[in-house]
Amino acid sequence: MTWMAWTWPTALFFATIAVALLVMTVLELYRPTRLAKGFLPMATTRGDRFFISLLSAAFIHLLWLGLVGSALYVASLLAVLCAVVLLRWG
Questions:
Q1: pLDDT at 2
Q2: What distance separates the 2 farthest-apart alpha carbons in the chain?
Q3: How many CB atoms lie within 10 A of CB 52?
Q4: Residue 48 lies in a domain
Q5: Is residue 83 part of a domain?
Q6: Is the Cβ–Cβ distance between 86 and 49 less than 8 Å?
Q7: Phi, psi at residue 76, to the nearest 5°?
Q8: Contact indicator for 52, 67 with CB cutoff of 8 Å
Q9: Are 57 and 82 in contact (CB under 8 A)?
């Protein structure tokens, strides 16, 4: 049985998600969130918008791989821009 080969980009990805969750937790403790209505069709909290941005990033990368197949840095940039828009105005 072989295990997954952990590479630096994979470790960096999971470390970034862990740090983001930690920051969101600390932010929630010091500045509790409230429901906000943006361009999304429902009122959401900061955590809701963060979760939606993570799902959007996964779909952006999958679509990019399916349609283009290379240069994931462009997909990552699109995912970060999407997350900024969702977290700010979503």
A1: 66
A2: 49
A3: 17
A4: yes
A5: yes
A6: yes
A7: -65, -40
A8: no
A9: yes
Structure tokens at 80: 């970060």
Q: What percent of the chain has pLDDT over 70?
A: 97
Domain for residue 78, yes or no? yes
Weakly modelled stretches of the chain, pLDDT under 70: 1-2, 4
Token look-up 């290379």 returns: 70
The tens digit of pLDDT for each residue in 12-34 reads: 889 999 999 999 999 999 999 88
In a domain, 21, yes or no: yes
Q: Which of 52, 58, 64 is nearest to 88 (CA)?
A: 52
Q: 40: which residues sit within 8 A by CB, 6+ positions away? A: 49, 52, 86, 90
* Structural domain span for residue 40: 8-89
Neighbours of 88 (CB within 10 A): 9
